[in-house]
Amino acid sequence: MSAPRTGAPVLDRLRVGSAPDSWGVWFPEDEQQVHWRRFLDEVAEAGYEWIELGPYGYLPTDPDVLREETARRGLRVSAGTVFTSLHHGPAVWDATWAHVAQVAALARAMDATHLVVIPSFWRDDKTARELEPRELTVEQWRHQATGMERLARQVREEYGLDIVVHPHADTHIDTEENVTRLLDATDPDLVRLCLDTGHYAYCGGDSVKLIRTYGERIGYLHLKQVDPRILEDVHANGTPFGPAVRQGVMCEPPRGVPELPPVLHAAQELGVDLFAIVEQDMYPCPADQPFPIADRTRRFLRSCGA
């Protein structure tokens, strides 16, 4: 276990973890993904204490089973994850809530505190086919904002969890302009962000600037980097997110951008406890690839004081 480098501040407000995503897991079931037991074994061996649930159904959905499997490895759950299309308005609410309730119930049973909410993709992440226009209408923005507030309120009331909205490549909440538009249109007590440093950089955003400008709205972190050389090619060719990941656009820290120490220090300066969950999108990947990366990444973060 590596210690912080000499002079590195102790980032004691950050609770570092990892997620199935860092093991190449994008789907509940997929023959190209590692078995969930291997993920749990390796994430614990790499030195992480916190994990996310990942796609609902990847990890056991029976709370008793999952509690036993995580506890004997010294792991705890920070959050579940859901995808939503709330910009489509009240017509999608019932279907949205049915899925959210399922994930939230398991997250709550595991003593998690957050639900990561990712907007739906505007284009297919494999084929690049446009599923809907890239830009939302004024009415759709209104639905997005009111829907997120409604979701936050109901999740908090029924499950005691806080939602954190995850800006994501190839979704309508991506760039600085769209992220700040959502924040400015929603109640700060209800809607906060899961700032994914890699996705925000992918979409041209500055994570340190966002933390310092909207610090009270940062409720959760995903730690990730992008390879600027590959990103330039992705943007030049209009490559959709899935193929971009297969090109290696999301890379192992500290090989990419943004530099993580300034982000970690800015988050520490907020003076609140924050989960900082490592995610390195790399679906699909060989089964032996994730663990060495996860191990090196944990050592790197320790050297930064986290």
TrEMBL record:
Q: What is this protein called?
A: 2-keto-myo-inositol dehydratase
Protein origin, superkingdom: Bacteria
Q: Where is the Xylose isomerase-like TIM barrel domain?
A: 40-303
One Pfam family cited in the UniProt record for this chain: AP_endonuc_2
